[in-house]
Specification:
two-stranded antiparallel sheet; 2 strands; Cytochrome Bc1 Complex, Chain D, domain 2; 50% helix; binds heme C; alpha+beta; 117 residues; single chain
Length: 117
């Protein structure tokens, strides 16, 4: 039993170290860090509404007064870093507000732009 606890402790410390390595970007590139944040930005992943690489996606389709309405997450591959920051920090009708640092926003920006090259 004690041995099992030790194994879990080692695994936990391992995971903690990995997270801190990610944060200072020494073992993964800015692009990979951006991809990770894009999919897991301390909130709903951007990929759910903007597609795998920011190309845009249909989030949901529903009927309103007999009319079909498509809820669409726009293509965000061409936004500037300033637009990206503004969008993340403001309130929207559909999109949630995020609390990301400048570094994190820059990483997501790198991810969105590299994917196109
Ligand atoms: C629940 C769905 C949803 C999620 C999750 C989401 N968005 Fe959005 N986003 C939208 C929608 C819909 C719009 C259009 C404005 C509106 O109606 O909210 C939008 C607008 C934007 C815009 C402005 C686009 C333009 O052309 O001006 C940017 C940039 C953006 N999102 C980036 C992101 C990033 C980066 C993430 C992840 C951190 C994210 N979004 C997560 C749905 C979402």
């Amino acid at each position: 039993m004690a041995r099992l606890a030790l194994v879990f402790t080692v695994l936990f410390i391992g995971a903690a170290i990995q997270v801190s390595l990610c944060a200072d970007e020494s073992f993964i590139t800015q692009y990979e860090y951006g991809q990770m944040l894009y999919e897991n930005p301390r909130g709903i992943g951007c990929n759910h509404c903007h597609g795998k690489a920011g190309e845009g996606a249909n989030v949901a389709t529903y009927m309103d007064d007999g009319k079909k309405v498509v809820l669409h997450g726009p293509d965000i591959r061409r936004v500037t870093i300033e637009e990206l920051r503004k969008s993340l920090e403001s309130r929207h009708r559909v999109m949630p507000t995020y609390f990301l640092t400048n570094n994190e926003i820059r990483a997501i920006y790198t991810y969105l732009h590299k994917e196109r090259e």
